[in-house]
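request received
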Amino acid sequence: MSTSGRGLHGRVLDALGPAITAGEYPPGSVLRTDELAQRFDVSRSVMREAVRVLESMHLVESRRRVGVTVRPKAEWNVYDPQVIRWRLAGADRPQQLRSLTVLRSAIEPVAAGLAAKHATAEQCAELTECALGMVANSKGHRLEGYLLHDIAFHRVILNASGNEMFARLGDVVAEVLTGRTRHEVMFEDPDPAAVTLHVRLAEAIRAGDAGHAEELTREIAEGALQELDILAP
Amino acid sequence: MSTSGRGLHGRVLDALGPAITAGEYPPGSVLRTDELAQRFDVSRSVMREAVRVLESMHLVESRRRVGVTVRPKAEWNVYDPQVIRWRLAGADRPQQLRSLTVLRSAIEPVAAGLAAKHATAEQCAELTECALGMVANSKGHRLEGYLLHDIAFHRVILNASGNEMFARLGDVVAEVLTGRTRHEVMFEDPDPAAVTLHVRLAEAIRAGDAGHAEELTREIAEGALQELDILAP
DNA sequence: ACGCCAAGAAAAAGTCAGACTTATTCATCA
DNA sequence: TGATGAATAAGTCTGACTTTTTCTTGGCGT
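response:
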């Protein structure tokens, strides 16, 4: 699933990226390309390419005669899927999960409202199918199947919104949902109320009722937020 | 203002990035590193670094024995500030402006609601100051001063929301507002109703009234969306 | 003795050129 | 049809050189 398994520079990134985002090198830390190249046992060319990528993510800044300095967290490109993945895998996973869920609570209701207006017949069918899949997997510890349909459900809505910025959040939502199921405490079956809301949401979108779709999505988001408060108050 | 004026690879990016995002090389196009290096008169090392950055933005994909292929627009990292800047400067500027405004309409109301709860006294003061600045520059074609205060106003709210993902949208909002003032038809003074809404919003946040702040921001966003519909229906 | 500015030295990134490796695709032939 | 091999373009490494920025040092005036 990791994008950057390819090539030597990818492996360096897979080591350096998580280390930086985890705060292993605090902001202001200075790294030197040559030293890093030695440490990771790669040539300077490869290391330079890796540094360039980190620089494009605003994780570091490279300056002559100084070295590669780690930038403060506030300047990172936190919407970069790679950065999100690194942070979700590291120390500030809780904070990342929280801020992403708040982001979802802002985006998804609006996206659902737009989807109600723009969704094609095919998308509506897919949506209903996903909702049914969620229902079918909602009992008896079938978390894996439930998760897959949940992800697909939200992805279809984001795509159907017709807004490219919303659509690109599909992967982020997938990461959040996966993380919640796999790493957090999630031994019990999903909340029946949430399942019902998804079914009704699919119906509202099919009916073209934007206001209702928006409201239902707000309730779903509210549930996700409360879930977070329960886990880490 | 452009981030990547630094270094040779930055200049290559400033040429290649806009070209790709503008659709000059349609998705599926194949470029070769060597050829590009010749065209831009740089060494392969430099060109490789540039390609790596484009790859990390998911604008292109580099494969052995094939070359550097342009990825479909749906896969681009459209939240990357650099990509946003390139697209705003290029051909699909209208679409980009539209989707960003819709994004704002989703994010900012929620951010304002959170800001009402979390804003510090200092942030409230700054907010009021910005609102006053907008009022002071709302008459007599003082667009430049109005714009600056408008940008600062929204940035303070996003920061005060306490959500890092929201905070990072400050630059995006700045780009949108700047773009609207400078490039679109904006000869007249700003809408008096919008100015009033900003003043009331600052007051609502200072009073800690989350619901009111959210509602007022929705009205502001609604105005921005209608403005777009008027310009390009 | 103290502070200040200019000239030079040092350090690390930036750039380049060339040789070599490796994976992938395509064409050929059994 | 399926295996073999040739072609190709990215990937990697090395070493030398350039450029920019920072630190040091020394000279000067007050």
